[in-house]
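so my prof wants the structure for this chain in the tokens format not the other one, which i didnt know existed until like an hour ago. anyway here's the sequence
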Amino acid sequence: MPPFLANTYSIVAYDPHLNQFGVAVQSHYFAVGSLVPWAEPGVGAVATQSFIEVSYGPVGLALIRAGKTAEQALQGLLASDPQSAVRQVAMVDAQGTVAAHTGKRCISEAGHKQGIHYSVQANLMLKDTVWDAMADAYEKTTGDLADRMLAALEAAESQAGDIRGAQSAALIVVSSEPTPAPWDGRVFDLRVDDHPLPLVELRRLHAISRAYKHAQTASELLEDKPLDEAKIAAAEHEFQLAAQSPEMHGNPELLFWYAVDLISAGREEHA
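here's what i got, hopefully its the right format
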């Protein structure tokens, strides 16, 4: 079986203000989200690409979970890999430290750039300006971790990105705090497996996911007892944030369930 070949660009990052890890990726490769990005709440995030050794993801996280730094985990994996020259890997750990590797035999243009709590990397790019553009966009973009990582991917595409074009993309954001179960700490977990404009579609899915999260927060506020006017106002604010998303226009489902929550909370007039 031929090796997985995901010539791609990606970012791994840690946001100390939001207590979140993230990894995002785009490639001309079907379902890149099933191979390249890995993240675990309270542990870290990994991107493994180029001639992929998929085990760098789960094993890298296991090493960090066991107490290794991102650099120690990466160096250990590279030392045991006879094909390390064709790997491109980046990791961020629970302390926000990053480590990255671009093997000497990765297909040009290939390279990476590290900053405070993040690393961007790319291979088989049309230009060697991709990783600098990604870093610049990530550092200059306001918003939360997901917004900033999406901006980094879009900056890569603005530099022509993958020489073969685009096909798939993925975005994962998890809590940097340990959670009772790994799925509890998932903030965003989105994949576009096959699309002519995967970043455009990923941005759309992110907006929809964010709208549903605002709606869920509104629902939880209305369920919280004792219910008072401050919670009603906060729930209304969260619902308006959900409803204002252009991607939700024409979708009556959020409005319907918000009305149901209001009725359940004894606020029939608001419903």
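also thought this was worth mentioning. The helical segments are 56-65, 70-79, 130-140, 145-158, 198-223, 229-243, 253-264.
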